[in-house]
Amino acid sequence: MGQQVNAAAVEWNPTAERLRELTEKMPNASVTEFGNVNVRARVDSRSTRSTFIVEDSTNATKQTITRAEFDRIAAEQDAYIAGTHMVVVDGYIGSDPQFRTRARLVMEAANANVAGMQRQLYYPAGEDYDPQTWEPDTTVIYTPNLPAPRLPERPGHRGGPEQQHHQGAQLRLLR
């Protein structure tokens, strides 16, 4: 049985057209004179200072969180997702069937531009794809609108401390 996504609504592998429709609804999106969608973002890039490894990992880093902290954050994220419209993009990382990895992105529909880009990066799941039985090797769950004020400060944001609370919402869990 594939991994469940318990959300208010879930769209599995929406078409490029549907992702564009969702992206155009974003308040920070506009259509250019050339017909492309432009999304203005508060964050320019991700940073190693906003990446954390669970401390029971074999990876050595100064940026760790405990398993208990990860479980707390994951539970908050799951509760948030239960009331949120989400999109799921499944596909492969790598083209060689012998070595490719099954990947899943679970993304807020309110930020469909990210899912649209990921859809371009994954190799398609194939004709025999069934979202109910798909077993991803890697799942990224991204909830950019979930307030996560107890996480350390996120570098690279624009604005004052009042926006820091919202910027801490850049919550991405790799499960």
Indicate the topology.
Layout: E1 9-12, H1 16-24, E2 29-31, E3 37-39, E4 53-54, E5 64-65, H2 67-81, E6 85-93, E7 101-108, H3 112-121, E8 138-143, H4 161-167, E9 171-174
Parallel strand pairs: 1-6, 4-5, 7-8
Antiparallel strand pairs: 2-3, 6-7, 8-9
Helix pairs in contact: 1-3
Provide a descriptive summary of the structure in words.
The protein has 175 residues and is an alpha/beta fold. The protein has one domain (9-174): Phosphoenolpyruvate Carboxykinase, domain 1. 23% of the residues lie in helices and 23% in strands. The chain is built from 4 helices and 9 strands. The protein has helices at residues 16-24, 67-81, 112-121, 161-167, and strands at 9-12, 29-31, 37-39, 53-54, 64-65, 85-93, 101-108, 138-143, 171-174. It has a 5-stranded mixed β-sheet with strand order 1-6-7-8-9, with helices on both faces. Strand 6 and strand 7 (101-108) form a beta hairpin. The chain is globular. The two termini are 16 Å apart.
For the largest beta-sheet, the strand count, sense and barrel status come to: 5 strands, mixed
Enter the CATH topology name: Phosphoenolpyruvate Carboxykinase, domain 1
Radius of gyration, taken over Cα atoms and rounded to an integer in Å: 17 Å
User: Beta-strand percentage?
Assistant: 15-25%
Span of the ends, CA to CA:
16 Å
Approximate shape: globular
Overall mean pLDDT: 78
The CATH H-level homologous superfamily: Phosphoenolpyruvate Carboxykinase, domain 1
Helix content: 10-25%
SSE sequence, one letter per element:
EHEEEEHEEHEHE
Number of helices: 4
